[in-house]
Design brief:
Layout: H1 3-23, H2 29-33, H3 73-78, H4 81-87, E1 123-126, E2 139-140, E3 146-147, E4 150-165, E5 172-187, E6 193-199, E7 202-203, E8 206-213, E9 223-224, E10 231-239, H5 240-243, E11 257-268, E12 274-288, E13 295-305, E14 307-308, E15 314-315, E16 317-327, E17 331-342, E18 349-360, E19 363-374, E20 385-394, E21 402-414, E22 418-419, E23 452-466, E24 471-482, E25 490-501, E26 505-516, E27 527-536
Parallel strand pairs: 12-22
Antiparallel strand pairs: 1-4, 2-3, 4-5, 4-27, 5-6, 5-8, 6-10, 7-8, 8-9, 10-11, 11-12, 12-13, 13-16, 14-15, 16-17, 17-18, 18-19, 19-20, 20-21, 21-23, 23-24, 24-25, 25-26, 26-27
């Protein structure tokens, strides 16, 4: 069997498997009642819809402990608060003891008066976000769903003065750069929402900037205006079982299928496999319970547009992905497979990854194995390679501080399936540490390359917290050692200080110094720094 036929059959097998999983019923009512933990593997629980920290922006809904009609003693022992909140009458079920009831009290208990006041978003209509008080009854749809619409407009504005030496040693760049991220979140219920995100002051890798000095004479002393209203994120997500609750009133069937459609952020294997805003549709089946597990989630995603290989390179491509996560007793295992089909010369690509996240004694640990395979000829965007990635971290006793050690080994030329988020570098190794991660603001790039080509490296860091965690100091050493003659060695040390001021402002100070070997024999000692003001609203 030739290679093309093997990969083709493998892909169709995975597609058939994903369809079977999506249509499979929950094992049993008793299993469904168990309040198993959900894994935010892909999902809506990201820091912001811009793609900072999620895995599928929408394709994943929590199956969500949203109101299961649990009857009998087992349901009462679990004290299903969501069920009680939805139906409000659990007392009639009885209990194990005189007067016992799991019904929530009608008494209004205020929050601790010493709790700080909740910062107000830019615009807030409807139910207050993380607010207190009586919920409004909402709007009942003909489908049986109850929606309680609320609108949030929020975002952040970043401005920095930064200076650095160019990689090729041609000169120093000093600039003032800015970017503005705005998001609109129309929440209809706990599982349905519409999200819109724009970046108004940058586009195609360029930022609104003023250059105090630049190796490019055309930019030296110039102001660059990049006003851009392009949509970065626009998607709707929901859950069929929540939109049509009357189809399965006991909530034990197979209607709880999460979905998302539109331009959404995909972040899988912590960005090593996927980190891009892609036009597509995703279907997710969550809270499946294979024997020996507490949860299994499977997502099938099809993307038809905006599939990128870096911040600058959009491919005429389609993305097919099967993305799974399984909770075992002591570990969470993710297994993901993506196929990129192109109609241009960049070449078809298959990328897969398996990871395990767990505690080992007092340490947090994560181990990942990924591989990419060019279906046809290798190109700049489609190549063969493997990536081994490990993360270890622990908190020193009696502190809130964090010590971490991340290491990687790239064999041949590993490339992610899609990467259009996270700076101009476009490589997958930004996860290794701040020496590898671009600031994604202006021309300031990471001190060390994030490409994964024939290299061994890592980062060791210590993060110290002060002033009740409102201030922090992060010190990190990073290194890259080439394992082939075509790759050079490089090292860097970066220090970052962050300080919160008020409820909306963060001051960030960065400084780095490095050492880069050159194939021409002239080693470089780059250094740079930046001062950033981050305003969140």
């Amino acid at each position: 069997m030739n290679g093309k036929r093997f990969w083709g059959l493998s892909w169709w097998f995975c597609a058939l498997f994903s369809i079977c999983v999506l249509l499979a019923p929950v094992e049993s009512a008793a299993s469904a009642e168990a309040d198993s933990p959900t894994l935010d593997g892909s999902s809506t629980a990201e820091e912001s819809p811009s793609g900072k920290k999620t895995k599928t922006q929408g394709a994943e809904s929590d199956d969500d402990h949203h109101g299961k009609e649990d009857h009998g003693e087992d349901a009462e022992q679990q004290g299903d608060a969501d069920h009680q909140g939805r139906h409000g009458e659990a007392g009639h079920h009885g209990g194990h003891g005189s007067g016992h009831s799991s019904r929530l009290s009608d008494e209004v208990i205020p929050l601790d008066p010493e709790m700080p006041e909740r910062p107000k978003p830019l615009v807030e209509l409807g139910e207050p976000f993380l607010g207190t008080g009586t919920l409004n009854p909402g709007i009942q749809l003909p489908t049986g769903a109850v929606w309680q619409p609320s609108l949030l407009v929020f975002g952040n504005w970043r401005t920095a003065v930064q200076t650095f030496e160019a990689d090729n040693g041609t000169g120093r760049t000093t600039e003032l750069a800015t970017r503005l991220d705005l998001f609109l979140n129309l929440s209809l219920s706990g599982s349905e929402r519409l999200v819109l995100g724009v970046r108004a002051l940058d586009g195609d890798g360029d930022f609104t900037s003023y250059f105090f000095e630049s190796p490019d004479p055309s930019l030296d002393g110039e102001f660059r205006d990049v006003t851009d209203a392009d949509i970065e994120v626009l998607f709707f997500e929901g859950d069929f079982g929540e939109i049509f609750p009357d189809l399965d009133r006991d909530d034990f069937g197979s209607t709880d299928i999460g979905f998302s459609v539109g331009r959404q952020n995909l972040l899988f294997q912590e960005g090593l496999l996927l980190n891009d805003n892609i036009d597509g549709v995703g279907l997710t089946r969550n809270t499946l319970l294979p024997e020996g597990t507490s949860n299994f989630r499977a997502t099938f995603f099809y993307g038809w547009g905006e599939v990128s290989t870096s911040a600058f390179n959009d491919r005429d491509a389609q993305l097919f992905a099967l993305l799974t996560s399984t909770d075992f007793l002591k570990s969470t295992v993710d297994a993901d497979l993506a196929y990129v089909r192109t109609s241009d010369t960049s070449g078809d690509l298959i990328v897969g990854g398996v990871s395990a996240v767990q505690r080992i004694g007092a340490m947090n640990s994560a181990f990942r194995v990924l591989g990419s395979h060019a279906v046809d000829e290798e190109t700049l965007f489609s190549s063969d390679g493997f990536l081994l990635f490990s993360e270890l971290s622990w908190v020193p006793h009696g502190t809130h501080d964090l010590i971490y050690a991340n290491n990687f080994l790239a064999i041949d030329d590993f490339v992610p399936a899609a990467r259009g988020v996270g700076g101009a570098g476009g490589g997958p190794l930004g996860r290794a540490g701040i020496n590898f991660a671009s600031a994604d603001l202006g021309s300031f790039d990471a001190p060390l390359s994030s490409r994964a080509s024939d290299v061994f490296g890592g980062a060791f860091g210590y993060q110290r917290f002060f002033d009740h965690t409102r201030k922090q100091l992060l010190m990190e050493l990073g290194y890259r050692l080439g394992i082939e003659d075509t790759q050079t060695d490089s090292y860097a040390a970066t220090v970052r200080f962050q300080s919160a001021h008020g409820k909306h402002t963060v001051l960030v100070l960065d400084g780095f110094v490095g050492h880069r070997e050159s194939l021409l024999g002239d080693d470089e000692v780059p250094f740079g720094g930046r001062v950033e003001l981050l305003f969140k609203f």
